Amino acid sequence: MIAATISMLIAASAQVEAAPSPDGWSFRERVDPITDLGSASAWVSDENGKAQFLLVCSAADEQVVSLQYLPGRYLGSREVEVIVRPDKASPISTYWETVLKGAYERDWQDVVRIATAIADAKQLTVRAMAFDGQPVDASFAIAGARAKFNEVLRVCGKPPL
Question: Under 8 Å CB-to-CB from 22, ≥6 apart: which residues?
Fold first, then answer.
C-alpha cells in the first residue's frame, strides 16, 4: 500500500504541469489497462504555483480516495497535523500521513468530512505542522470544488458530496 501511495503522490505531482480550467481547477481521468479501475485527480495550485491541494482517486490494486497537500517542502516522515480552513469558517484539524514533499489523508470518513466542509468555499487555507514544528501554509482559490470533487468521486463509484 505504501508503494501505491507513493506512486499516487508522484503521479499527482506530475499532473500539476497540466493547464488549469478558467476556475483554476485541473482534472485528469485515467483507466488502468490491467484492472480497468478508473482513477481521477482534481487539483488547484496556490497563487505562487508552489503548492497544490488535491482530491485523488487512485486505482492501484483498489480505488483509494485521498485528499493531498503538496507544499513542495519536506514535512517529515511521520504523521503531521494538517489544518484546513475554508473561507473564514472554523478550522478542521486532523493528522495526515507524509511522503516525499507532501501529506495525504485517505481515511474515507475524514476525506468526506473535510471535502464536504470545503466543497462550497471560495478560499482554502491549509497549514501542515512540519517535523521541525514550523507551520507550512498555503492558500488556494477553490471556487467550484464541489463539482470537481464529484467528478473524482464519480470515477471511483462513490456517492457525490
Answer: none
